[in-house]
């Protein structure tokens, strides 16, 4: 799991938690819309969206 509140030594990147939440919200809503707006999968959509955004952020900010 990625710690979004810590700084990376080399680039001093601090991830904005508010921006992260907004990105997850938008991705989860997109999943809801793709299902035709049928409810009942809120938690599943949120957790999938959160995982996807974390993976993207790890890729963007991972220092090799």
From TrEMBL:
InterPro entries: DUF2934. It comes from the Bacteria. This is DUF2934 family protein.
């Amino acid at each position: 799991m990625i710690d979004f509140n810590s700084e990376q030594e080399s680039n001093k990147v601090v991830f904005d938690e508010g921006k992260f939440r907004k990105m997850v919200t938008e991705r989860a809503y997109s999943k809801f819309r793709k299902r035709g707006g049928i409810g009942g999968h809120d938690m599943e959509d949120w957790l999938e969206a959160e995982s996807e955004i974390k993976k993207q952020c790890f890729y963007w900010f991972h220092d090799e």
